[in-house]
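=== RUN LOG ===
request id: a7f3
mode: sequence -> structure
chains: 1
length: 499
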Amino acid sequence: MKWITSKNNRTIDVKEIPVLDINELRSKIIDQYKANRRVVGFFGCNEDSAVRIYAILANDYKSELLISSAYIRKEKSYPSITKEIPAFHMFERELYEEFGIEPAGHPWLKPVRYSKNRFDKTQEIANYPFFKMDGEEIHEVAVGPIHAGIIEPGHFRFMCNGEKVYHLEIQLGYQHRGIENLLVKKNDRFMSNLAESITGDTVIGQTIAYTNAIESLLNLDISDKAGLIRVVTLELERIAVHIGDLGAIANDIAYLMSNAVFGATRTLVINTLLSICGSRFGRGLIRVGGVTFDLDNELISKISKTLDKVEKDVDRMTNTMFASASVLSRLEKTGIVSKEKARELGLVGMAARASGLSLDSRIDHPWGWYKDSFIDKELLDSGDVFARTYIRYKEIKQSIHIIKDLLYKIQVYDKDVLLTQSNKSLSKNSLVVSIVEGWRGEIVHTAITDNDGRICRYKIKDPSFNNWYGLALAVRNNGISDFPVCNKSFNLSYCGNDL
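=== RESULT ===
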């Protein structure tokens, strides 16, 4: 057996995961990729005097996860998978940075985040090996890492000929938060407050991924009502950020009326979250065992009425905005990422769907209510800024309809317990993969426990990890003045990369 087959949020015995030779594992990964499997996890875990590498591939058509592994002991090197599957490039760079295991022949073996526990301490962010281009007419434009306002640190290095961008290199790694290590060192199964801080604009998505994983390791089922409230708030988070992004994109092209209207409309949505749990971003709501706040009939009615207004305002402003020739001239055919390139790079979420890739883990790897629902994947195929903007509008509409349906269902479970308590210990020698479709895309949390049932490895993959290079590709052959709107059309997370 070369792979063990699992599902989203299913706990499996680590001892049942096949252990292959690293070269054989590489070969089997390439075979699976040719059969349309894709990578969702590739990372190491220290075990005694060796490093065990785990590979997790997704079979989206069957809602399955294929898991295998290999031990690296003395060799500390293997032939790079990236040469065959470019989507592995970030995973292999991260593995090398952390453990010093070299993917020989990797075309772009640079540090990912300069974490404090990196293998090679001589690699410092001040000496980042930027790509260089020669030529009398080539010039570099450096932006960041310090930006105006409250934006997080990140450096963008443009290689230009006049206004045309030939290449953009994105250097991150300025934040050394150590989130994954904290989740291991604290070894408290109730670390939802830390999960809320993984990416501050995806509090609900990240915390659900964390709690789903821990609940699986506890063999703990939450109530129907708690599960429905989680989905309602996850979709509210999606609506809120998408509306905010529509306003920000409008601002970047100087369409200020839309910027103002969408800003006000977003406030209606985040204030709805505030009315549910006391936080406009959903902090304090999702906890292991369920949720901490209820939705009574009065609040349900209020949410429904607010969403009616939100939908009406978004419809009116979006239709007006996209009827403008000047808007379309700035968005259409700008920052194109083709379907082929999106698949090659392993893009996920909204950015992938805007390029025509049929990926949505709510459908492909469902949990909770999503298992029994039917949701259409919102797809566009132009792969440009217009597609990444318009798909937000389509998903806002979809999420509003999902929430309205669930608000009716919640009332059926009025007597359900909101927070189920458990005195159980985490399953020993176990692994679980938890996948949640956040507003930005596929969030993946993988937890591994040891002989004592303590978490020994916690791996987080934010969708930004997949998509940053997509932004770099999108701006090629565009004017440098198109960068802001290209950037906002992806709206990626710095801290989601700098774990």
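=== NOTES ===
The CA atoms of residues 94 and 401 lie 39 Å apart.
Residues 4-112 form a domain with the Beta Polymerase; domain 2 fold (CATH 3.30.460.80).
=== END ===
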